[in-house]
Amino acid sequence: MIYDVVILGSGPAGYTAALYASRANLSVLLLEGIEVGGQLMITTDVENYPGFPDGIMGPELMQKFKEQVERFGTECRFGSATSVDFTSSPFAITVDEQEVVKGRGVIIATGAQARWLGLESETRLKGYGVSACATCDGFFFKDKEIAVVGGGDSAMEEANFLTKFASKVTVIHRRDKLRASKIMQDRALANPKIEFLWNHSVTEVLTETGREVVGLKVENTQSGEESTIALEGLFLAIGHDPTTQIFRGIIDLDESGYIVPEDHTMTNIPGVFAAGDCVDHRYRQAVTAAGLGCQAALDLERWLEDQEHAG
């Protein structure tokens, strides 16, 4: 079977694209990827997605997305694209290095992954005091002491933003100098609620019940001396990696690996579109990803109509 559209990714961008495409009476296959539901599956309370005045758990929100697209006929299938052939339409996508599926059009919504420290305690406490999104989770840390790990512009931006809620923000940086631009450094250094812990790295996130952060174990990167800090939250701001590796040399990417659209959401290959965090390295919000998914589906629908008229 050749689908009208194959969507790669099951976050807000992928599901919204599927919703619009399936409601346009297109046959839609959505490949859910390794992390079904995307980054919201490791988010506890989501309070900034419109339509949920009391908030909603991340996994529950993504389940509602899935139920909605399936209602309109989208076929959701567990599996990841491991290689693609975009030389001509219908495009061929190999799933888990085995099955090949084909689509007249493709929407790439593979997202991006926050970089983590790789600690077992950090992984266990994601969504329970450990976060990689200040905009998403800062509200939950009112009047609490928290830490931000990182030394670039994003870390300084996150630290400044978090002072709107937290009583104190400690920036932990493994060097004695920041990589951030001077203006971002100046803002952070001038903020009375921000303190800096230089030449230190986090070695463990401390908890008592397994459902909250009570402190950090840190190590001096020069002396190796270990110490502990009492606080109630940890934010990682050490960058994101877009999930676009299989498109290298095929789709136009920037130096960081994000997809660079050529015409609205269309990539350099006509018929292949992109949406969500694999494109957007600035906002990275569920609502903006959903908006891009909508745009990609509408662009693809019009492109398919143009192909039919041209034929």
Fold and architecture overview:
The protein has seven helices and 19 strands. β1, α1 and β2 form a beta-alpha-beta unit. The model has no long low-confidence stretch (mean pLDDT 94). The strands form five sheets. Strands 1, 2, 5, 6, 7, 8 and 19 form a seven-stranded mixed β-sheet that branches. It is α/β, with parallel strands linked by helices and 311 residues long. α1 packs parallel to α2 and α1 packs parallel to α7.
Radius of gyration: 21 Å
Poorly predicted parts: none
How do the SSEs run, as a string of H and E? Answer: EHEEEHEEEEEHEHEHEHEEEEEEEH
Averaged pLDDT, please? 94
Secondary structure tally, helices = 7
**Can you summarize the main beta sheet?**
7 strands, mixed
Helix vs. strand class: alpha/beta
Shape: elongated
Bin the helical content: 25-40%
**Gap between N and C termini, in Å?**
21 Å
Total strands: the figure is 19
Assess the beta-strand content as a share of residues: 25-35%
Q: What characteristics describe this protein?
A:
7 helices; seven-stranded mixed beta sheet; five-stranded parallel beta sheet; alpha/beta; 27% strand; 19 strands
